Sequence to fold (311 residues):
Amino acid sequence: MPIRPIDHGIFAASGAGAPGAAYFGGGQISGGTRQTKVEKFAYPDDTRTALGTGLSAARNTLAGMANSGTAGYFAGGYVSSGATDVVDKFAFSDDSRTTLGSGLPAATYGLAGMANWGTAGYFGGGYTTTYVTTVYKIAFSDDSWSTLSTGLASTSSGVGAMANSGTAGYIGGGSHWPSYHTTMNKFAFSDDSRTTLSSGISPGRDGVSGMANSGTAGYMGGGYQSGGPTQSVVDKFAFSDDSRSALSSGLSSARSYTGAAANSGTAGYYAGASGYEDTVDKFAFPGDSRTTLGTGLASGTGYLAGMANEG
Fold:
């Protein structure tokens, strides 16, 4: 049975009336214009609204993760001048935004985010002035930063991440040109030690996106394979033994650099694409059947990030 935020009493501390929702932020639209917008898809009816206050700066190839029931974070990315270290925090009680006084320890884009609800969030991989293995940890109690002593197994940008909250987080895929990676790094939340799964993603690709049905399974979808083509495959990793299978129905179209978010126990979402799509695919848990939302993103957007306040 999935361990959901409400089972930990997290919602009780977050203020009444903060409904669950998926959030997709930043990215760029056709023509290359970077975005500040943050779009919210409310559970359970998937209605879309745009937050009155978006990101503090227009950026793409950023990362998102959330302390479900409390706040979500969008970190890093690429702005007009290059990589940024900015971290915007959205309080789920009213969707108000603050920008952390201390951002990422290094300006980074092409990174991925995951979270251990109630304890800490993680941002790993990406590109600074070079490809990196670094994984940063932010403590939710005071938003203070540390750097894990052991990072990713290989330098990678365009990685994806997912988490089995309370147990372990996973960062996988990505590339260090001209190599495209299949590796799945697993970080035990008890001590942040890293192992690598015997079975990684298939095929090796960057621009992959991850989301999770916490307590049950994680999903790594889409991405770009060396030499092409762009992929529609969604790999599923069972948290009980980390075994991998491929969903019989992948994404509704081949695409990379989507945003991903999930409502554990109910459904996960993949939104947008590097080809500037507005499509939002929804995968119902636990059967993994796919539908496409009638109302997608407000405009075709790629290189965006997702995070969720779980319902």
